[in-house]
């Protein structure tokens, strides 16, 4: 087991028919157990970067540089390993939920990995309890609120016990209360299950207290990385309305 869970070396990527790369020489390391918040202005390349880490989400284009997961090139992990070891939560829960019942959604990932029934039952029960969703276990997915759908989506990924959980603006379609609950759950996953987290989020005031490290991107490059504590208190983190972020480390 490698202490460095995810590593990119000089990762550069350009979308087809775009001369300007969307990622320029990104070199990044995530240690096991870290909670990293990735931030930067709209269009700086956050989503483009996160999608490189799962083959079935990676955009088409021209890529150079390396991506390692647990010490091996990520492309060498087969689909099954990628889907169980790397979880990915996107903005819209609607697009990610694939079944019609809560319990079935929780079981679906393990079913498709071919797990045996006792294992599926145990893991689903454990996660339903961890997420406090036993009371809506037998509901139809259509009966759930947006916040519940995104929590279900998260829980159905967590039953696969991923080592790395990537989340791309997971609260952008939730109301403030549901968003706060969702982020608190991510914090609990990191603390209690030890899952490594890589999150982009515009609710930085709520995300920073959870983070062990903040990575700032601009124009497809990583500008800086450091602990949120090193910013010496929230008064030194200036987030103007444009969403542009300035950090003093
Ligand atoms: N499918 C695509 N084809 C061509 N260019 C794209 C595509 N998706 C994104 N881009 C461009 O790549 C750059 C990075 O976009 P990306 O979506 O990664 O930014 P982001 O940091 O996630 O922004 P936001 O905060 O708005 O989500 C932008 O210039 C964007 O216009
Ligand atoms: Mg994005």
Quick structural summary:
With 249 residues, the protein is of the alpha/beta class. Helices cover 29% and strands 24% of the residues.
Summarize the structure in words.
By secondary structure, the protein is α/β, with parallel strands linked by helices. The protein has one domain (4-236): Rossmann fold, CATH 3.40.50.300. The chain has seven helices and ten strands. It has a six-stranded mixed β-sheet. Strands 2-1-4-5 form a four-stranded antiparallel β-sheet, with no helix packed on it. β7 (164-168), α6 (176-193) and β8 (196-200) form a beta-alpha-beta unit. α3 (102-112) packs across α4 (117-130). Bound molecules: adenosine-5'-triphosphate (ATP) and magnesium ion. Adenosine-5'-triphosphate binds at residues 15, 18, 22, 42-48, 59. Magnesium ion (MG) is lined by residues 46-47, 168.
User: What is the makeup of the main sheet?
Assistant: 6 strands, mixed
The CATH superfamily appears as P-loop containing nucleotide triphosphate hydrolases
- State the CATH class: Alpha Beta
Largest sheet: spatial strand order: 6-7-8-3-9-10
Number of strands: 10
What integer is the average pLDDT? 90
The proportion of strand residues reads 15-25%
The name of the CATH architecture is 3-Layer(aba) Sandwich
Name the ligand types.
Answer: adenosine-5'-triphosphate, magnesium ion
Shape: globular
Give me the number of helical elements: 7
Topology:
Blueprint: E1 4-14, E2 23-31, E3 35-39, H1 46-51, E4 62-69, E5 72-73, H2 79-85, E6 86-89, H3 102-112, H4 117-130, H5 146-158, E7 164-168, H6 176-193, E8 196-200, H7 204-207, E9 213-218, E10 221-226
Parallel strand pairs: 3-8, 3-9, 6-7, 7-8
Antiparallel strand pairs: 1-2, 1-4, 4-5, 9-10
Helix pairs in contact: 3-4, 3-5, 5-6
Bound molecules: adenosine-5'-triphosphate (ATP) and magnesium ion (MG).
Adenosine-5'-triphosphate binds next to α1.
């Amino acid at each position: 087991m490698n202490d460095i869970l995810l590593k990119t070396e000089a990762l550069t990527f350009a979308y087809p028919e775009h001369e300007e790369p969307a990622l320029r020489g990104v070199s990044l390391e995530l240690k096991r157990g870290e909670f990293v918040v990735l931030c930067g202005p709209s269009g700086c390349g956050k989503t483009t970067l996160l999608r490189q880490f799962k083959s079935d989400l990676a955009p088409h284009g021209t890529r150079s540089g390396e991506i390692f997961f647990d010490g091996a090139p990520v492309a060498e992990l087969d689909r099954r390993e990628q889907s169980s070891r790397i979880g990915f939560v996107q903005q819209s829960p609607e697009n990610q939920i694939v079944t019609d019942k809560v319990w079935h959604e929780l079981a679906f990932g393990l079913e498709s990995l071919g797990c045996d029934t006792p294992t599926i039952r145990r893991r689903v029960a454990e996660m339903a309890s961890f997420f406090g969703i036993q009371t809506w276990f037998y509901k139809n997915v259509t009966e759930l609120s947006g916040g519940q759908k995104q929590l279900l989506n998260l829980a159905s990924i967590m039953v696969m016990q991923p080592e790395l959980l990537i989340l791309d603006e997971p609260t952008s379609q939730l109301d403030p209360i549901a968003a706060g609950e969702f982020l608190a759950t991510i914090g609990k996953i990191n603390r209690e299950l030890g899952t490594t987290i890589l999150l982009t989020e515009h609710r930085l005031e709520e995300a920073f207290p959870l983070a062990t490290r903040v990575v700032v991107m601009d124009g497809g490059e990583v500008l800086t990385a450091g602990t949120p504590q090193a910013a010496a208190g929230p008064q030194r983190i200036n987030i103007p309305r444009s969403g542009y972020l300035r950090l003093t480390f």
